[in-house]
Amino acid sequence: MTDNLVEIEGMKRYYEMVSGTVKALNGVDLQVKEGERIILLGPSGSGKTTLLNCIAALDSPTAGQYSFAGKDVPRTPEIIPRWWNPIPPLKGLGRFNRIAEIFRYFNNIPLRLLFYPLHYFTYSKPLAKASEEATSFRRENIGYVFQFFNLLQDLTVLENILLIQELAGGRDENRARELLALVGLEEEVDRFPTEISGGQQQRVAIARSLAKRPKLLLGDELTGNLDTKTSSMVMEVLVKACEAENITTVFVTHDESLTKYATRIIRLDSGVVISDEIV
Amino acid sequence: MKALLTKRLFRSLWRSKIRLVAVVLIIMVGVMSGIAFGHYAHMTTNMYSEIYEDSENGVNLADIWVENPRDIWDLEESENLCEEISLQWANSQLPMVECEPRLVLEGLLIATEDDGSERLVPGVWHGIDEGDVDRVWMPDDSCCEGRLAESHDEIVLDAHVVEGLGVELGDTITIGAGQGILNFTIVGFGYHPMHLYFAAPGSIVPAESGTFAAGYLTSSGLEALANVSAGTANMLLIDVLDTPEYDLESTDEKEGEELSAIIDSMTITVTDIDQSAIIYDRSGIESVELLRADAEGAMKTYPVITAMLVLVAGITIFLSLQRLIQSQAREIAILRTLGIPRSAIMPSYVLAPMGIGLFGIILGIIGGIFVGSPAMELVYEEIMGIPIIGDNYSFMQVFEISIITMILVMFSGIRPAWQAANLDPLKVLRGQVEVKLSSKAIQQFTSKLPTTIGLTIRSSTRKPIRLAFTFFAVGLSMLILGSMLFMMNSMEDVFIGNADESSNWDQQAIVYPGMEVEIVEWAEENSIDYELLLTLPANPDGDSRQLVAMGLDVFSTSGNQAMQTLSLIEGDLPNQGSDPPEALVDEGIQHFLGWEVGEVQAIRFGSQLVEFKITGITEGEIARTVYFNRADLASQVDLETTSVFLTYPEEFNRTNELGDMSIGIIDKQQTIDAMESLMEQQQVFFISIQFLGIVVAIVVLFNTLIINLAERDLELATLRVLGAPISRIGSMMLGEHFAIGLIGGVLGAIFSILGTQWMISSLVQWSFYFKVDADPLISSYLVGIVLFISVALTPVGMWRVHRMDLVEKVKEFSN
User: Fold this and answer.
1) B94 shares its domain with B235
2) Any chain B CB within 8 A of the CB of A48?
3) What pLDDT does B45 receive?
4) Which residues, at least 6 apart from A20, have a Cβ–Cβ distance to it below 8 Å?
5) A5 with A250: CB under 8 angstroms?
6) Backbone angle region of B655, left / alpha / beta, with phi > 0 → left and psi within -120 to 50 → alpha
7) Do residues A93 and A230 both lie within one domain?
8) Chain B contact for A166 (CB, 8 A cutoff)
9) B547-552/B625-629 β-pairing
């Protein structure tokens, strides 16, 4: 038993594309201790978002080990079984390829219907189960802040937080109000997202992500849509909130200026960690 | 460039295949149904005019009938009547071509069952020979064979009866009329223009094969059977040049004014000679009128049904395209930013629905011609029992339906196309157009509710216009389904309920004046309950339409005090011996003539006018009826009885005795069986229409609910990333679908009730009146169906969320 919150060993994530195999992560080893504030840096295509998605169990690694608080993180099967596409893609038909594809598509329908029970019990059902396990994992452990805030426009600031609490199984309005006070928005509780600024929206998103007391908060370019001044304000609020709640954070960014808020900076390139520096 | 943009749009459409298939399906259903119903309408109209064509090809039909309902005319009397009619013919553009005396008698056919027992089948026998004014029709079809009767012991049996009786050419059958019974050899099977719609006299329900018979004999054959002198007749068939217009019962207009003038003048001439004679035009022949009404009804309803379906298709396309544009707003904005002009964007969005429409229309045409139309022909042949003749395909009609559908489809795409071309790129790229909030009132109303419920309600009501369109389209589809259910239910109530629950008799024996004495004696000897009945045709004064005047001995509205109970909806039962006599009228008479309780009105029996006071209104009658106390009516018309109701004791063994004492027998159970059989025959047709309604409702709801979900992809994905379990999301969807289903169902049921009542009110006519009641069970069923469809689509939505690629969605969030 280690005191690491996150333990990743030899994580690989390959994508099969028409142009060939893309190695988004190619053997990443990472240990995250509780209370750390990690910033992942790297150029486009370096694999930082993929790593974040794998940590959040949104994506499943192709290979490697990943445990969270000492437990294996659920992952979803990726390969669609052979019987689901009984007629293989047709090749070498030149300009008639598209017609052949349409033909194959419709011809697969009766065969898919035939194989459906097998497909359901051996693939769909386990996939759905694994997917729900991954969702539960996120609900219990992970907070997520998006670049574009993604607040529900039809709910007030307060309701956006209450919704997440209700979905997680425990509405607590006092805590929601406390969190909004923590991010400096106690005056805006009854406003709708369209009625507040981008910076304020991101602060609501932070409060929302903290609403269910996650162990780990993830953020993907969370200041990418904000100006420098607002970015600083948001990051300060975030650091303050995470310290107050004792929450570990991992943020992905292009912005080197945000490194001042980190306790650890990890740089990725071509799917591997090229530097790991404690600040 | 335009070609590329169009290609891009079609690729986008292909990405939402399920919705695309739904839209194509609904267009196909609309066109297919339009073609099938249109084919039925044209087929019935063409059949009507071709069969009754006044030429060598058609069987023709008299234009005026002079009937002696109480007695017969001998040769001299009938010739005298024809001569007087000819001499006194009104000064008109319509000359008389022929006046043909005819003997037509009601009687019985003695059918032998497989076990050797005998069964009495009521029938009508025509002494027709070759026929001048009308003829026996033997179309070139498997239904008919043989030749016309040439000698006095030969008969052509109506082709409707063949299957039920299991007879063949050359067989001998025994028939009776009056007191006579004779054997006849079957020499042919054919139809007669007055019995194409094959129902027993006084009934509008097609008779089940073998329960009613019609035969066409030589004049001498029928005279021998009835034991009357040569040249005896009880009907004059008068043919007027060509086929003049006559006053239709279904309209308030006076269509055949010239023919009406002739009938008025002829009434004076004829009733001078015979007071009891009644004169009528084609509207007085129920069989002919029902065929015409069927054709007219089909012609009226098919454009309505087609328009409804095409409208639903239009709404579906409109909503789908709006969603498509919404989902492509960013792409369009980028294209506009890159300098693509509006004029280049708009055509693709106009072409897209036309492309989809064209595909749906082609499928609809194929389905309509090869599936729908033959199915309608089959229904017609099954119910009417007559073969389809002639080439009834109207390619002009197919063309019209296709063009109208295409225009509607094109129009449904114009507004979305305009919206697409006029999107403000700046607003789109700032994300401002995507934000569509629910109304302040809804926000306020839901603020006190749990957030999940509040969000569900707010999300559902974000697009009130879409929701309104959806409810309207669901309402239309429920109208298709509901109208069938309400009509079936009402018809069942009227037909079977009337025959079963209101009739406390087993058999009704039709008699000539005086014959009832023997039946009464026989009934008393055998402890059979009986009740005398007097039934006569009549006309409202100053109106050529026929009604039935019925004289009852006992009036009752419940239980089994009377042989025939009535359903009184207004007023009181009539007292006997009042002056003027008191009577009840049915609600159809009230509807068409506006007669009310307390008024004194008059009806005419031939030339004799009878005034009466209306004391009440009854419901449930298909034919227009006035109920008198029998004694009151008998004193007015100088006739005692025309039939006897009989209720047998449980162990009573029925024999042919009654047949010997009467000229015809109506068996209650056979009537009910015939009605049930008719209902059964129409089941397939009704079920098909119901299926159509349900399919349309599914497509419409599916389309809207999927659009609703697709629009909320971002919300749902956010919730999933933040850890919302599928069960909670499913509960939210279920709540939304339940609410939409419930509201849609209630609105659909209301729409359906009002629409059906409107449809029925525009289709009912003098000879065929019934109203539709809002049966709570059917209304609940309609609400239940919409609710079920809506709720059943929840798993589709959950499946959609399940297979959502959250990695891709997160990428979208970051772009």
Assistant:
1) yes
2) no
3) 86
4) none
5) no
6) beta
7) no
8) yes
9) parallel
Closest alpha carbon to B512 in B644, B608, B645, B628? B644
Tokens of B258: 């010239």
B299 and B387 assigned to the same domain: yes
In a domain, A9, yes or no: no
Task: List the strands of the sheet with A4-17, edge to edge.
Answer: A20-33, A4-17, A63-68, A71-72
Residue A70, token pair as written in the block? 């000492």
Q: Which residues does A248 contact at the CB level (< 8 Å), separation at least 6?
A: A5, A6, A32, A33, A34, A35, A36, A37, A38, A215, A216, A217, A242
Chain A residues within 8 A of B724 when measuring between CB atoms:
135, 139, 164, 167
* Complex ipTM: 0.79
Q: What pLDDT score does B574 carry?
A: 94
H-assigned helices in B649-667? 657-661
Q: Which residues of A touch B446 (CB under 8 A)?
A: none
CB atoms inside a 10 Å sphere around CB B432? 11
**Nearest residue, CB atoms, A152 vs list B431, B715, B810:** B715
Tens digits of per-residue pLDDT, B572-609? 999 998 989 999 999 999 988 999 999 999 998 877 88
Rounded percentage of chain B residues whose pLDDT exceeds 90: 19
Residue B43: closest CA among B396, B383, B373, B368: B373
Domain count, chain B: 4
B703–chain A nearest CA distance, Å:
21
The CA-to-CA distance between both ends of chain B, in Å, stands at: 26
Look at the block and give the residue holding tokens 């040439």. Answer: B150
- Contact status, residue B608 vs residue B536, Cβ threshold 8 Å: no
Residue A86 belongs to what domain range? 82-126
**Which residues of chain A make contact with B721, given a CB cutoff of 8 A?**
56, 58, 138, 144, 146
Q: Enumerate residues 6+ apart whose C-beta is below 8 A from B87.
A: none
Q: What is the pLDDT of residue B671?
A: 76
pTM score, whole prediction: 0.72
Instruction: Give the model's pLDDT for residue B221.
Output: 92
Evaluate whether residue A4 is within a structural domain: no
The residue ranges of chain A whose pLDDT is under 50 are 1
Alpha helices in chain A (DSSP H): 48-55, 97-119, 125-141, 157-168, 173-182, 198-210, 228-245
**Number of domains comprising chain A:** 2
Using the predicted structure, report yes or no on whether residue B432 has a pLDDT greater than 60. no
Please indicate, yes or no, if residue B460 is contained in any of the structural domains: yes
- Claim to verify: residue A187 and residue A258 sit in the same structural domain: yes
Residue positions counted in chain B: 815
φ/ψ of B707, rounded to 5, equals -60, -45
In a shared domain, residues B302 and B406: yes
Q: CA of B488: how far to CAs of A155, B383, B759, in Å?
A: 48, 15, 14
Whether the pLDDT of residue B293 is over 90: the answer is: no
pLDDT of residue B595: 93
Is residue B343 in some structural domain? yes
Please give the share of chain B, as a percent, with pLDDT higher than 70. 94
**B377-387 per-position pLDDT tens digit:** 888 887 777 88
